[in-house]
Specification:
alpha+beta; 14 helices
């Protein structure tokens, strides 16, 4: 005999209760699925963000803070690595790319990072449009920054709440390039020449600028010319309007001459080579070694009293370990909640089966075998468990996707939650346990005598 008709009839008769059973199972499965899917998405996203950061060298301090500052652009106060220590990296034959990172400014919540043109090209694998900055007045923006090539903006000092103070430096920067999407927090960053950051904060710019001396000398001459002009202008009041107009023209020429030398005072060189005596400190420097062997020797050489060097992957592994421990606790809690849900559903189904005892007793009296009763009850409970588990997979995936989108919007780190073998095994295990436990109400009704069931005892 086919038990499906009586199963379908039972589902329709108590459809509200059956939907509640399915929802409870779905929520229990979704909790575990969402946790594991989100944890894996976080691991993959953070690993992708650190992919281009082979070695980080900084002043001695918390490696986690250095990683959060340099890779994830979550800025905090850290010590600066003195210029003479990191400046030597540009002449190191083991180094393919060395790029300083300088922070301190932002624009509408987007971090402004000072570095080198080589780092921009390396980080984004080439620009989507435009070109890298060639002067300190130019900037390259990440793929998620709402600025286009040709736009101008004014940096603000600080990040986050500090930027509300609207403390501007008075500098206008021009967007000349836009990076390819990287799937990292750097998609929301603005990169300028590191000399621009130093110059705005009144620090040495890493280069001897001969124009500075000329500025002092020529500026003095311009000032003397201006004073001579003022003296002549005073006498010109007695010599006629024509001489006065000539003096005014001379004053304008002297002002323009001085302004021209003020422009010459700006930094005219960017990027390496740097002058070691002119280098300020930086929060960190990114190093790409030429080989694996070079990576380990560089790390060893820069682990001193004045500097620390490490592979960001080492820090991420430790973070994953802590994350894994927390995830294990949460998964254990989820497993406990799932067990409670299953127990509650079974208790409710046992109570529900009492409503069906007379119907099944009548079927037995009419000649239905015990195996039919067993299969009907087992199929009924199993259908609820399987349906709930499938719904739980979908619900858990949707929750993880939503959390990933929120996390990506907040941090800029691309996260893509997906269903893997872990989630399928979790849902499958829940189904297997449910199918096993479904035998309990089926077995109880299977063993119940027909006469006692008809009498309601």
């Amino acid at each position: 005999m086919n038990p499906l008709p009586i199963v379908m009839a039972s589902l329709k008769r108590h459809w509200i209760m059956n939907i509640l059973f399915v929802l409870l199972i779905a929520v229990a499965v979704a909790i575990g699925v969402g946790l594991t899917a989100q944890e894996r998405a976080l691991r993959q996203g953070s690993a992708q963000a650190a992919d281009k950061f082979d070695i980080l060298i900084a002043a001695p301090g918390s490696q986690t803070e250095i990683v959060m500052n340099s890779i994830f652009l979550q800025h905090s106060a850290i010590n600066l690595l003195d210029g003479p220590y990191w400046g030597k990296l540009f002449d190191d034959p083991r180094v393919e790319i060395a790029a300083p990172l300088a922070f301190g400014d932002s624009w509408k919540g987007h971090s402004i990072v000072g570095s080198t043109p080589q780092f921009v090209t390396y980080l984004s694998g080439g620009l989507a449009s435009g070109h890298v900055f060639e002067t300190i007045e130019q900037a390259v923006v990440g793929a998620a920054v709402p600025l286009a090539i040709g736009d101008e903006f004014e940096p603000s000092h600080g990040h986050g709440p500090e930027e509300v103070l609207d403390h501007h430096h008075g500098a206008e920067l021009h967007v000349v390039g836009k990076m390819q999407p990287t799937g990292t927090p750097w998609d929301s960053a603005i990169i300028v020449a590191v000399e621009q950051v130093w110059d705005l904060h009144a620090l040495p710019t890493g280069h001897h600028e001969p124009a500075g001396d000329e500025h002092d000398h020529d500026g003095s001459e311009a000032h003397e010319d201006h004073e001579d002009h003022e003296h002549n202008e005073a006498n010109a009041h007695h010599e006629g309007d024509h001489d006065h107009d000539h003096a005014a023209d001379h004053d304008e020429d002297a002002h323009d001459h001085a302004h021209e030398h003020d422009d010459d005072h700006h930094v005219t060189r960017i990027g390496p080579p740097f002058d070691l005596d002119e280098l300020p400190g930086v929060p960190a420097i990114v190093v790409r070694p030429k080989s694996v062997a070079a990576a380990y020797t560089i790390r060893s050489d820069y682990r001193t009293d004045h500097s620390t060097a490490f592979f960001p992957a080492e820090v991420l592994v430790e973070m994953y370990r802590l994350l894994g421990n927390a995830g294990s606790v949460m998964r254990a809690m989820a497993l406990g909640s799932q067990a409670l849900v299953v127990a509650a559903i079974l208790a409710a189904i046992l109570a529900l089966m009492q409503l069906y005892r007379k119907q099944f007793a009548v079927l037995r009296a009419l000649g239905a075998p015990r195996s039919y009763v067993f299969s009907a009850i087992w199929s009924y409970v199993s259908l609820l468990v399987v349906t709930g588990a499938i719904c739980g997979l979908g619900l858990g995936w949707m929750v993880a996707q939503s959390v990933s989108r929120i996390f990506t919007a907040e941090t800029g780190m691309a996260m893509q939650a997906s269903l893997g073998s872990s989630e399928l095994m979790l849902a499958g295990g829940f189904v297997i346990i449910g199918l096993i436990l479904a035998t309990l109400p089926a077995f109880l009704l299977y063993r119940r005598p027909v006469v006692s069931a008809l009498r309601g005892s």
